[in-house]
Design a protein that fits this description.
mainly alpha, 7 helices, 177 residues
């Protein structure tokens, strides 16, 4: 395992940029959680205000991203080493295709499914599409294992959709669309 880490020269740079993106995201989460109404006029306990959990998550993500950036800087990940060939290799590489597919599937879920069909069905379809797309489009599946992949993805999607819906409805008391 140590040899693999030594051979992977791009990881400190990827960690550096990922850490910066996560740091910006955590700052936005903190900003918007502070801007949320605290509902003091209703006499609500400050610890049960709607912004507490997002604020804590923002702090946790911020601390973790600072650790990631610090580790990347120590390993020299802040050096850009940009050239036309490295930029072209990155833009046309599989990582960008996977990011694009992830963003596309998430937007389809948020804008196309949630609110138009029942939440449980929307979540089932989202998880099923996500797993199948990444297993079949980016995996090296053999023909005979494809049936097993479809069945496993269907089972995973059903379990995730059912459990997430139940937790939101019965534990968090959220009315689902």
């Amino acid at each position: 395992m140590g040899d693999k880490l030594k051979q992977d020269h791009g990881m400190p740079r990827a960690d550096f940029f990922t850490g910066l993106v996560l740091l910006a995201f955590s700052a936005a989460v903190l900003y918007f959680s502070i801007a949320m109404p605290r509902l003091e006029h209703r006499g609500i306990n400050p610890l049960s205000a709607p912004a507490v959990v997002p604020g804590l998550l923002g702090v946790i993500i911020g601390v973790c991203s600072l650790a990631l950036v610090t580790r990347a800087v120590v390993r020299g990940g802040y050096r850009l080493r940009l050239s036309a060939s490295t930029t072209k290799a990155f833009v046309t590489g599989p990582a960008v295709r996977r990011i694009g597919a992830t963003v596309g599937i998430c937007l389809l879920y948020a804008w196309g499914l949630v609110g138009r069909v029942h939440y449980t069905l929307a979540t089932f379809l989202f998880v099923l599409m996500f797993v199948l797309f990444f297993e079949l489009a980016f995996g090296q599946e053999e023909r005979r294992s494809m049936r097993r992949t479809v069945w496993t993805a269907t089972l995973e999607a059903a379990l995730v959709a059912g459990i997430v819906s139940a937790v939101f409805q019965y534990l968090f008391l959220v009315a689902l669309p």
